[in-house]
TrEMBL record:
The chain crosses the membrane at residues 12-28, 40-61, 77-97, 109-130. Keywords: Membrane, Transmembrane, Transmembrane helix. It comes from Colwellia chukchiensis. This is VanZ like family protein.
Amino acid sequence: MIIVNKKSENLAFLVVLGVLLILLVHYFRDNYKTGSTISLLLGVAPNFITAFCFPAVFIGFKNKIEKYRGKINPFKWFTFCTLLCLIILICWEFRQAELDNFVFDKNDILASIFGAILFLFCWPFLRGFVKPA
């Protein structure tokens, strides 16, 4: 990850935390048979966690892109990163419908949307990580 400022370690922590949570969810899904509500939550959790944590990966690239494009508004960059990740997740979900070992699930799309919305609501807390234009 490209260091934006000294607080960037927290963004990296958010990404690592997301990966660890997804691994934990997969462990529980594989090793414990639970009721339908818990199974639903464990089924959509990876999409929710990814939509919430994945945009933090791209936030650190703002300075590199500004070298080629010019100054970028921090909130617009934050929103662009979030929407880009959401589009990637939704496209992946539709792609799963064509693959043999994967399952298309509308609930995964909803979980991705809710995770992205939650990440957008975190802007007041995360704006210190993105240098102003």
